[in-house]
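Tutorial sheet, problem 5. The three components below are modelled jointly, 834 residues in total.
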Amino acid sequence: MNQPVFIAGTGIISAIGNNVAECLDALENGRAGMGEMHHFNSVHKERLPVAEVKLANDELAQLAGLPGIKSRTALLSLVAAKEALQNAGITDLAHLRTGFISATSVGGMDKTEDFFTRFLADNSKGKLRDVVNHECGSVTELVADALGIKDYISTISTACSSSANAVFFGARLIRHDIVDVVVAGGTDSMTRFTLNGFNTLMILDEQFCQPFDENRRGLNLGEGAGYVVLVSEKVAATLKNKPGIILSGYCNANDAYHQTASSPDGIGSYLAMSGALKKAGLQTTDIDYINLHGTGTQNNDIAEGTAIRRLFEDRYPKMSSTKTFTGHTLGASGGIEAVFSVLALQHGIIYPNLRLQTPMVDLPFVPEREFLKNVEVKHVLSNSFGFGGNCSSLIFSKAE
Amino acid sequence: MSDLKTQIIAQLNLQDTKPEDIGDDQPLFVEGLGLDSIDALELIVLLQQQYKIKLSNAEDGPKVFQTVRTMAEYITAHQAQNA
Amino acid sequence: MYIRATGNISPQKTFGHKPLEELVSYTGNRLACIEPDYKEFIDPKQIRRMSRIIRMAVAAAMECLQEAGLAKPDAIVTGTAYGCLEDTNSFLSKMVEFNEELLTPTAFIQSTHNTIGAQIGLMLQCNNYNNAFVHRGFSFESALLDGMMLLKENDASTVLVGAIDEITNSSHTILNRLGLYKQGPVSNLDIFDTKTKGTIAGEGAAFFLLATEPSATDYAKLDGLHTFYKPAGTAEIEKQVLSFLTKHSVDMNDIDLVITGRTGNAGTDRIYDELAATIFKNKVLLDYKNLCGEYPTAAAFAMWLGANIIKSGTVPAVLNRSDTAGKKIVRILIYNQHQGIHHSLSLLSAC
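Model answer (structure tokens):
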């Protein structure tokens, strides 16, 4: 039950790049992905910056190799999952028990929204094919079928912690000997439903977001997908590129404070981080980098910051919010940030927290403002905290 | 103010509450009616929908929505401005 | 692994721990849950922000925890295929109607799939593990597996696992347009006799308290769970069933009852006819979707039924199964499939 689970591959598509290499380049060169809405239409176009993937649906379909009109959520997922599998280079995948655990908050809503406009006027109208893949699980299956994975498939939806939960659920499936390989992570695409939903909560920033800044105004919504390929120790040993990174810790805890707001002292965040450390058998002093949830909302950043202050007690590791680059990709954020965490370990790099002008006065630490190279990074903590008080933390480590 | 109370009850789905149950000066949030931050957002929309008043800064919410009376006073003041 | 307690809101009179005493019949292709007075379970101040599906889930979860005598489980895991349809519908409709202006947050925050589990966690002030699966006909089974793994990992000794799906007017219209349901007057209690196309729509909220330690009042042991996706044909299904039993050191002869997921749709039910002639030959087969309808998480109703049968040792008299009279039911195999895509097997036995 405690055998190590290795990360054999990573795949990603986001506002800052269509694959791992492009994203790494953007992260190193401080190129954020926010901007005006381009592929997506909304009444709020002029007012709200978003972090869109810079490809239209037909371009995504081509990249994914999935022709026909499919949900953007599925297309993003397939592109990233394919890259992760290719990256893992598992040659005899057909003979291994393989799973696909994907996470999403919107599912096929991008197409359902279009259906609904007609359906509401007349319920015999609206193209059924637009709504047939509405369910989160349907999006996952479109991708699983395209990837040829069928031994274990499921979908998790716990708001912003969704894909972090997917990653460690996948790892546990391996530990319980249900599968040998799992592609795990998440995907979300821009929808009017989500944009408007967040707008009603008045937590969207009309400028580019500034997580962990004293004067932060809110978040920028983003879209994308991020997946890791998890393998058992046995499979890892057979791979040409011997994977050197493991998922050493994980924890899912609940804030149980309010439906959307985090508790002021971040109890859920505290429990998730400390639980992950306990699972990994690590101390706070072992952590070299925290990939913050850091959405840029008044509420999250102080709750998360407070939890970090309480847990790390003035021995603070380097930390940053990569949402300053990718925006908040909701159901995909845990997966995307898992990929960034693995890359940080692989390349010995620390990402900057962009646009940090005034550090938060209530916190005794300041996120990293510069991109750092040649850093000794052995353990990375990645936080994903969502609505419903769902808090999850993952720890990735260099294998001994 | 009794119209306002009826609107509040409808907007916040306070099913078992009647307008008479809400005191003019009864605190709406935390104690009293026990409303929370989501209710505050709902009330902001109520102001816009019913009274065409836009509360652009959510942080003003606690002051404006302290009691039905403070809400009513805010509405009167801003309606005069809009007129 | 023990099923210590249950809570079930369904189109039958299942809430309140009555053993199935009478059957409720419906005419038409849509069944509706028989709901309790929620004010007995939920503070009215909180009810206002709960849509129907959340109220159903919370009440079923509360009943389950009350039966278990447990204030806080070590984990809460939920499964729902469609999520909170009413709120999704409400927010979407307003968004279209008002062209993205003057929208309010309540429907939006209530529409997220994890709201169900989150509301339960919030009500219980439970800071423990809380997860939500949203995978079509595997939603319940994924939640169940997550719970079972937590217990095996010793990261929990009690897990509250639930599955919930609702029907709304819009969802029913859409699914009806997709050709899933029977047309014309039909009674749910006759669907297995009609041999026509289509099934009937159901809904429900079923919760289980799983525990590692036995107690005096457990329903049944949950010995195993297995799911498989898009099997190639009957031969593969047979293989999956037999290897599942072998894995749990059980022989088909040891199975006293097989609960099967016939939906009344002649086409997709054919598989059950085939299996009845092969691996399930001479086995007592019991169907349940005439009671609860067909929906992606209907297998949770099957598990509730199975657990109750194991607890009492007999099939409820009202189901009129003379072929089970005088026979103590000690081991049950549940085989369900959803639209030929999602297949699940579970094994229950007496404590």
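Marking note: Chain C touches chain B through eleven residues (CB under 8 Å). Full credit if you identified this.
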